[in-house]
Design goal:
Order of helices and strands: EEHHHEEHHH
Number of strands: 4
Number of helices: 6
Largest sheet: 4 strands, antiparallel
Helix content: 40-55%
Structural class: alpha+beta
Radius of gyration: 17 Å
Strand order of the largest sheet: 1-2-3-4
Strand content: 5-15%
């Protein structure tokens, strides 16, 4: 069947860590937009913006308007739950189990803070790679090299969690 030049959107990927395999699925578009808005308005103003501006070569990210509003505990837990809502552990049997259920309980065993952080980064990197790829890196701004800010961001965050 001919695709008539239509590029299919990647809907899932696998991520392996700590000897385990996880399936990261794409966000529903409206949920993804909500998560991106939360990241850009609540999380980035808390300090990650300077890391991003250094990685991408943009100085405007450091110019804050007002002071950022800190998320409350429930709001932050809900954001993590939303991000992890499309992540499942894949077992050797082929069965899958959600990492976090809608009621904020874990669907898998041996959950640690570091595991959840790695899965959150993997989910954000997969779901927003196209968004961050649109931002030119320092290298691209000066000359054409084969990398982009999504690669830089993934590399920067990846090295943090290894």
């Amino acid at each position: 069947m001919e695709n008539n030049g239509v590029v299919k959107h990647e809907t899932s990927t696998t991520y392996s860590t700590e000897g385990r395999t996880f399936v990261v699925n794409a966000f529903d578009p409206m949920l993804g937009n909500y998560i991106l808005m939360q990241i850009l308005t609540s999380v980035l103003p808390m300090g990650i913006d300077s890391m991003l501006s250094n990685a991408t070569g943009t100085e405007t990210a450091n110019k804050k308007i007002g002071s950022p509003k800190l998320m409350g505990k429930e709001e932050f837990i809900q954001l993590q739950t939303d991000i992890l809502s499309t992540v499942y552990e894949q077992y050797e049997s082929g069965q899958k189990s959600p990492v976090v259920r809608a009621n904020h309980t874990y669907g898998v065993s041996d959950v640690s803070m570091m595991l959840l952080l790695k899965l959150i980064v993997a989910s954000l990197a997969f779901n927003f790679k196209d968004f961050f790829a649109a931002i030119p890196s320092k290298q691209e701004a000066g000359k054409d090299q084969g990398s982009n800010s999504a690669d830089t961001l993934t590399s920067m965050l990846g090295s943090f969690f290894q």
